[in-house]
């Protein structure tokens, strides 16, 4: 049996004295796409921050391709190919679109692939190609989200984690992002996707984990035969 790309085992952490994660265990296999959903404030973003090194684990293990990365510095995590695109479009507002993208390839392993990856980002997001010389602070919310994902792709990810990429976006822009993220995953980039829009998750992922009160409340092995009504019943406990 193939070794999972990402293994999280009994992960516990929090902020200050406040515990947020209570023994999270999950795994991501080669070429797989997993979705995380659940109520706001129950640990989904905290989980991604801990995996990417932005937050230290209190207990438990995080392994990337069999190598422990729990507590490793974020830069070292990026060097290993794990790219985290957080909420909030963390961009350099006074830099242009293309300058932000080029900075995304700062890791040594990504520099050699910078130009082909830049062409790939512009193919995925034609709007960014049109606005390549525009300051990122002048972009619309949807365009900034496209740019944030593009910056992540410039890091040549072996594993891509996206935290609520459709937050606050209009339905048309959600559809554009769904199409782009689908193309990313179809070329073999394993994906961890956090979303409140469950239909968006079902369209893009192979398995779902529901995170509730900082723990895995449900592990849905396949989304193939799962409809929105069933998800809502799991989410709220009623139909």
Structural class: alpha/beta
For the largest sheet, list the strands in their spatial order: 6-7-8-3-9-10
Biggest sheet overview: 6 strands, mixed
**Alpha-carbon distance between the termini?**
38 Å
Mean pLDDT: 91
Please tally the β strands and state the result. 10
Beta fraction of the residues?
Answer: 15-25%
Total count of helical runs of at least 4 residues:
10
Secondary-structure element order, N to C = EEEHEEHEHHHHHEHEHEEH
Shape descriptor: globular
Report helical residue fraction. 25-40%
Spans where pLDDT lies below 50 across 5 or more residues: none
Over the alpha carbons, how many angstroms does the gyration radius reach? 17 Å
Please characterize this protein's 3D structure:
The chain starts with 5 loop residues before the first strand and ends with a helix. Helix 8 (171-186) links the parallel strand 7 and strand 8. The chain is α/β, with parallel strands linked by helices. The chain has 10 helices and 10 strands. The strands form 2 sheets. A 6-stranded mixed β-sheet has the order 6-7-8-3-9-10, sandwiched between helices. Strands 2-1-4-5 form a 4-stranded antiparallel β-sheet, with helices on one face. Helix 3 (97-103) packs parallel to helix 7 (141-154).
